[in-house]
Task: structure prediction
Amino acid sequence: KKERIICLFSECDNKLDKIIDNVDLIVINDKKYNVGLILSFKEEYSLFNLLRRYSGFIVSSRKLKQKKIPNIEKISRYTKSVKERISALENTSSQNCFLYPSGMAAIFTSILSILSPEKPNFIALGSLYVDTIRILEKWVGKYNLNNPIFITKDIIANLEKYINNKTAGIILEIPSNPLIQIIDIEKVVNLAHEYGCKVIVDSTIASPYNIKPFDYNVDIIVHSTTKFLSGENNHIGGIILTNNENIKKKIDEFNKILKLDMFISEIKILNNNLKNFEKRMEIINSNSNKIAHFLANHKAIKHVYYPSLENNPNYLLMKKYLKGGSGLISFTFKNSTYETAEKFYNNLTPPILKGPSLGSESTLLSPYVVMAHYDDSKENLKKLGLDFYLMRISVGIEPSDQIINSLEQGLNAIH
Result:
């Protein structure tokens, strides 16, 4: 049985709600004792967050008081700057922005903010990022969440079939990761709002440079700021944006309890990296289009997933919604085997870097399904439409001919 700890504030005469307003209560799982507990007064919370993140140490409020407290005014200035920059990119107010320590923290909070006992159902559209799928699967039976419905084919027709008055929300990516699908947002929003259902759009891959989801009346926009918004491989964070006052109140309530704040150091880095955002995206859009066409014309390639290709089933939707195709491309081999994938991967050269993540100004390539869906069954991969040896490339700002030369070297090794 897990131990339960009761805290008594013997020196406080205030009411309980006032005590809670002045103190951060942080519960940390501990393998030895099952539960550990920390009290950290709010003025010291930012420092505590840094210590917890980088050291893993558990420290008391008394010891924290002996440390140098960060300049709160400076922290607020960076936070304000980041919110103003991103909200301007998304055509909304900085009051509608909420910063988080990761993209998945933002996804998790956005889902929680729209669930209710009256509306426990959730629908996921397209080939979502694996951890978004895991969140929806993990929290079934908790936070008023019923079994989510995953729709990957005939999306609008199946959405019409499954949506009802108990559907709290619909989540989709634009475009999706890793199959780079584009879903007709207008149709989804119109249908959802008929049933009082909210729409969450994860616009991480498109980025605000290529689409403004609020133009299509979506309820929540989510970004992993780690990716294209930052673009430097030196930041981790996430953001929620919403114009809906009720959702904002719900998010505020969760934030008071969960304390999922973006770390100070990450806010400063993001603030600096945003300065070059639009120039980076202009180059990435151009490079990606050239690379996608090169891959589509290579004899060793079976399929290229990128919306600006004229034969792509999402081409017309891309023209309708996106300024450019952004920087993520996936592709499969005609001879899809371990040996083919290994030989291709091992013959890649700089500027392509081998590694996970995406959205950096450096080109990154990974065997995405091998890394993200390694424990999925063949049946589930088939259901998701994923080739086990699919490669995903996040295109950077290097000269496009250099990136193509590296890909050609890898492909020539297998063809």
